[in-house]
Amino acid sequence: MSAGSDSQRMRPTGPIFRLAAVSWPSRRSALPAWKKAARRLPRLQQVAYVQRAVNAHIRWASDATQWGQHDYWASAAETLQHGYGDEEDRAIVKMRA
Questions:
Q1: Neighbours of 60 (CB within 10 A)
Q2: Most buried residue, 7, 76, 85, 95, by most Cβ within 10 Å?
Q3: 20 three-class SS
């Protein structure tokens, strides 16, 4: 078996990993859409779904680049509005979900 086929087998697939479609003009509705989609899943799958949704839709950017500060903890609304954030910002969005 090749390494490529092993990595493909390990990649999560299925309906729990299909993200709620949210167009960028409606970023504010992303969090409610993710919550609604995750509610019907078992608890562990909810966590995986939110993790994947946030990581897919929030691109990484340093606080210095985005906010001009060494360390800034953006609210979930700020992060969703901008579409960028560092690890703390992503964590805040995940906690809100």
A1: 13
A2: 85
A3: coil
Judge residue 19's burial from the number of C-beta atoms within 10 Å of its C-beta, 0-12 exposed, 13-18 middle, 19 or more buried. Answer: middle
CA 91 to chain centroid: 9
| % of the chain residues with pLDDT over 90 | 31
Claim: this prediction has a pTM higher than 0.85: no
| Cα–Cα dist 53/58, whole Å | 8
Distance, in Å, from the CA atom of 28 to the CA atom of 8, rounded to the nearest integer, reads 33
Q: What is the pLDDT of residues 45-83, one digit of tens each?
A: 988 988 988 988 899 999 999 899 999 999 998 998 888
Q: Tell me the C-alpha distance between 22 and 6, whole Å.
A: 31
